[in-house]
Design a protein that fits this description.
222 residues, TIM Barrel, 36% helix, alpha/beta, single chain, 6 strands, globular
């Protein structure tokens, strides 16, 4: 199993070559880049080329891109106006589409291909089913179309992005459900919430905690 990390863990920081080096040094094999422009300026070709070079230098595979979630420059997904191609106002729909097209440019520049659907198990645990049914019923319509999985936990009430086993997801049952998907070797991307503030752990500590949670999951998956 590849050790894959979403850069959402450091979304309030600029995604620099130095940070990529720390991620690689913590034992991760690849990344999903979270596309918020204060974190990664995906609208500039020079930034795209620099990122492609930095990923290669640190032997990190780019496995996916997380689409922008807001139209402003706020680094946190909880703030800002959400992007939606279903906006009532035409100008807002066009604005959302333009932002998403920039992410497609990133995919072209970094040779990311074969895009399908991501299954987010933490979000599935918030679905409107009984707790025992949430993961299975959320995966069922997408089972044949899933190309990657977001791994994180919560207590079934809000989107906490906790490490696996720190919430109330039944991980032994969830692993069996995920392994029932027809695609073998699904990319399993750890998507944890960043800890910020004066008492927040250092980057190295957050990476070590992320690696520890993924090691535990990997043993259960095997």
């Amino acid at each position: 199993m590849q050790r894959l990390l979403s850069t959402y863990l450091f979304v309030s920081r600029k995604l620099t070559p130095e940070l990529l080096g720390q991620i690689a040094g913590a034992g991760f094999d690849g990344l999903e880049i979270f596309c918020t422009r204060s974190h990664f300026e995906y609208s500039m070709k020079a930034e795209l080329r620099a990122m492609a070079g930095a990923l290669e230098a640190h032997h990190l595979q780019l496995v996916s891109m997380h689409a922008p979630t807001s139209r402003d420059l706020s680094p946190m997904r909880e703030s800002g106006t959400p992007l939606s191609i279903c906006e009532v106002e035409r100008v807002r729909r066009i604005e959302a589409m333009d932002e998403l097209k920039r992410v497609i440019d990133v995919a072209d520049e970094t040779r990311l291909t074969g895009l399908r659907f991501n299954f987010d198990i933490g979000h599935a645990h918030l679905a409107d089913f009984t707790e025992e049914e949430r993961v299975e019923k959320s995966l069922s319509p997408l089972r044949d179309l899933v190309s990657s999985v977001h791994l994180h936990d919560n207590h079934g009430e809000k989107d906490e992005h906790l490490p696996p086993y720190d919430g109330t997801i039944d991980w032994p049952a969830a692993i069996k459900i995920l392994q029932s998907a027809p695609q073998t070797n699904l990319p399993l991307v750890l998507e944890l919430k960043e800890k910020t503030g004066t008492d927040a752990p250092a980057v190295a500590e957050q990476l070590a905690a992320a690696r520890k949670s993924l090691d535990r999951f990997e043993k259960a998956w095997a």
